[in-house]
What we know:
Blueprint: H1 6-21, H2 28-34, H3 39-45, H4 49-73, H5 78-95, H6 102-108, H7 115-139, H8 143-167, H9 171-185
Helix pairs in contact: 1-4, 4-7, 5-7, 5-9, 6-7, 7-8, 8-9
Amino acid sequence: MRQANAKDRILQTAGQLFFQRGYSEVGINEIIERAETAKASFYQHFSSKEALCEAWLAAVHDRSEDQRAALLAAASNPTAKLECYFDELAAFMINSQFRGCPYSNTGAVSDATCTGIVAQIQGHKDSLRRFFREICSLQLDESSRAEEIGDRIFLLYSGATTECQNLRTIWPVEVARKAALELLSR
């Protein structure tokens, strides 16, 4: 098996560390050491730790977008799509040992000067909000109603993710799932 190039190793290593411990708790030297690369290689590919974090968040976003697009394209009805997405959240939370949302976790330790990181976070959250609105538009005829219900479901999803992480238990996702399905069926 071919070993990943330096850029991919740096990105993969940083992603694991940022997700496990948080962006603010990981230094460039640790990333370089664990990625088994030289400092010059790091700076050849990334101008800063912030630029590396932006690349990591963009990669996570792209994978999430692919997942959501596949779910929207699936032959299932809107209720099944919504159930599936909340079920995937529950599995993610359990598999990650309740680590939570990489965007919310990174946003909590990034200040306004990290404009690229903030833009990545806002872009991802906006995309997730549009996704829920789109699911609702498949079920509800009135577009303003679909947007309103989609926004409510987005907040249920986000709140469930946070409380699941805080409490280290899955019940917030289960309650949010049930509430989201009730909203969609109105």
